[in-house]
Structure formats: C-alpha cells, structure tokens
Amino acid sequence: MSIPSSLLASESITFEGAIELTQSLLSLIEADQLSEADIEQAVRALVKTQNGARGFFVTYLTDDLPEADHPSPGVVEALRSAPEIVAELLVKNLAMSSAMIVYHSRHQSEEKAAGSARVQKRSRNLIQILQMPACQTIASQMLESLQNAKGEYEEFFQRWGYDDEQKLAMGSAVRSAIG
Predict the structure, then answer these.
(1) Distances (CA, A) of 164 to 49, 93, 144, 148, 178
(2) Nearest-5° angle of CA 89, CA 90, CA 92?
(3) What is the rounded CA–CA span in Å between residue 31 and residue 46?
(4) Overall pTM > 0.90
(5) Is the dihedral of CA 72, 62, 100, 87 positive or negative?
(6) pLDDT tens profile 129-143
C-alpha cells in the first residue's frame, strides 16, 4: 500500500493540524494498515517542522495506544532524521512531564499524574533508543541551568514557574535518560 498524501505533513502544517494528522496516523498503525516505510515517511514529514514535531509528540506521547511504548523502526528512523527539533522536544517533554508528576501528585490527581508518568516513560525510552548526540547536548545544558539557575534553559524554567521539588524531579529524570 502506498501512503496516502493526506498523511504527509506540509511544511506549513499547524500545530493543530499535526495533532489531527498524528491521530489518523496512529489509528492506521494500530489497525496495521501501514508499512514501516510508510510510517517512516509520514513521521519524517511531521518532524521536519517545529509545529509538526510538537503536534506529533503531544499526540504520540500521550495516546492510549500501546504502540508508543514500543516505537517501531519506522518511527525511530524518522525521528533520527530531524535531530535538532526532535532532541529538544524530547528532553523538554521528559523534563516537563517529570515536573507535572510532582504537581499532579500534590493535588491528589492520580489520573493526571499517571498520564504525566506515561509521557515521562515514553520520552525517556525514545531518548535512550535514539542515542542522538543532540539529546546529550540539550540534556547537559538543561542540567547546567537546573544546577546554576542560569544558562540556556533558565528562562524556560522561570516561564513555567517550576519550584525546587519539580526541578529536582526534572534533573533526576534527565540524568537517568542520558546515563
């Protein structure tokens, strides 16, 4: 089967459009209707733009489908095709989900904490599978900002208002992902 053009993201895809496209893609993957080459082609088209990659990850990392727990070779190869975009989003997703586990646990929202834990686990898994130098670089920059309260990611932490406990959880998760 040849991949439908409707599954190929354009360079001008919106964040919302990327979410919809990824949902369609995941449905076809679950139904075993796409080859690995088709999956790779579709994901590669998504992750080559910031909006496409953001929409892909927000859907892929949070979806109930178990496919995201065991990324297929097509997904892995596609993600490797855009290391600059993919690495930063994966490390940020790992850090943010770790902070949100703390937040939701504090507010006795176990279902939301479990959702954040799923995103954390999937992000860590992808970082470890991909073994991209860009992930190591971004993780190191993030850890430096966490430790010194300055640097590349300090503005990011301040913008989201993370507290010390959340930052500790973020650092622990990032360190465990990059070994």
Answers:
(1) 33, 18, 15, 12, 21
(2) 65
(3) 20
(4) yes
(5) positive
(6) 999 999 999 999 999
The count of residues in the chain is: 179
Output the DSSP codes for 20-78: HHHHHHHHHHHTT-S-HHHHHHHHHHHHTSHHHHHHHHHHHTT-S-GGGGS--HHHHHH
Residue 97 to residue 89: CA distance in whole angstroms: 12
Report d(CA 9, CA 162) in Å as an integer.
Answer: 34
CA 101 to the chain's CA centroid: 16
Positive or negative, the CA dihedral 30, 39, 90, 51 is negative
pLDDT tier at 4 (50, 70, 90 boundaries)?
A: confident
pLDDT bin (cut points 50, 70, 90) of residue 96 is very high
Contact assessment for residue 39 and residue 74, using Cβ atoms and an 8 Å cutoff: yes
Residue among 15, 72, 76, 79 at smallest CA distance from 44: 79
Name the maximum alpha-carbon separation found in the chain.
52
DSSP-assigned letter for residue 175 = H
The residue whose two tokens read 């095709």 is 81
CB 48 within 8 A of CB 16: no
Q: Which two structure tokens, joined as six digits, stand for 31?
A: 């139904």
